[in-house]
Write a structure and sequence with these properties.
Length: 209
C-alpha cells in the first residue's frame, strides 16, 4: 500500500522548494498576473511528465551513472538560465514597468521558458529516480508509479499557483518598484545558472521546482 501520508507532505515540500522554475512563475505572476503564469507554467508540467516516465523505466539510473550525460544537460541548463536572466535584466532596463500590462509578455515565449528551464535541470529527473522508488509498491509497480507521478504534477501545479500569486501580490503592492523585482529575478536566474553549473551530481537529493 502506498504510504501517501508520508509521500504527500514530503513531495509538496519538494514542489515548494525555491528553484528556477518557481522563480520564473513568480516573475511571470508579477509581470502578467497569476492566470498568465499558471498557463505558462503548463510548459513545466509537460516537461516533467515525460521525465517521470523516463525515471520509471530506469533511465534516471543511467543519468545518475553517466557523468558525461549529466554534465551535458547541466551545461545546457546553466547556459539557458544565464541567458534568461540577462534577458529579464535587459527588459527591466528598457520597459516602462510602472505601466506593465499582460499583453507585453508573450505567452509562447513564457511557456517555452518554463519548459526549457525544467528540461535543462538534470536534478529534476534525479528527484524522480531517487525519491519515487522509496514509495513505489514493487508488486504493483506501474500503477503505484502512475499515482505518485500524478500526485507530484498536481502538487507542482499548486506550487506554481502559489508562487505566481505571490509574484502578482508583490507587483501590486509595489507597482512603481516592479523594475527592482524584475532585476532581482534576472540576477536570481543568473545565480541559479551558476549554481547549477558548479554543483556536482547530487546523490539522493535534488531540486525540481
Amino acid at each position: 500500500m502506498l504510504d501517501l501520508a508520508v509521500y504527500i507532505p514530503a513531495c509538496f515540500a519538494i514542489n515548494l522548494a525555491f528553484g528556477p522554475n518557481n522563480l520564473l512563475a513568480m516573475t511571470h505572476g508579477a509581470q502578467a498576473g497569476t492566470g498568465f503564469a499558471l498557463r505558462a507554467g503548463m510548459g513545466r508540467i509537460l516537461a516533467f511528465a515525460p521525465m517521470i516516465a523516463i525515471s520509471a523505466i530506469g533511465l534516471g539510473v543511467i543519468l545518475s551513472a553517466s557523468a558525461m550525460v549529466f554534465t551535458a544537460i547541466k551545461i545546457f541548463g546553466a547556459a539557458y538560465l544565464v541567458y534568461l536572466g540577462i534577458k529579464i535584466l535587459r527588459s527591466s532596463a528598457s520597459a516602462d514597468l510602472s505601466d506593465l500590462k499582460p499583453r507585453q509578455l508573450e505567452f509562447r515565449s513564457a511557456f517555452r521558458s518554463e519548459m526549457l528551464v525544467a528540461f535543462g535541470n538534470p536534478k529534476a529527473i534525479l528527484v524522480f529516480a531517487a525519491f519515487f522508488p522509496q514509495f513505489v509498491v514493487v508488486e504493483d509497480y506501474a500503477q503505484s508509479y502512475l499515482i505518485l507521478g500524478s500526485l507530484f504534477l498536481v502538487m507542482e501545479i499548486a506550487a506554481l499557483f502559489i508562487y505566481a500569486a505571490v509574484g502578482q501580490f508583490a507587483a501590486r503592492a509595489a507597482s512603481r518598484r516592479l523594475h527592482w523585482f524584475q532585476r532581482a529575478s534576472g540576477f536570481g536566474m543568473i545565480g541559479f545558472g551558476l549554481l547549477l553549473l558548479f554543483t556536482p551530481k547530487p546523490g539522493n537529493q535534488a531540486l525540481a521546482g
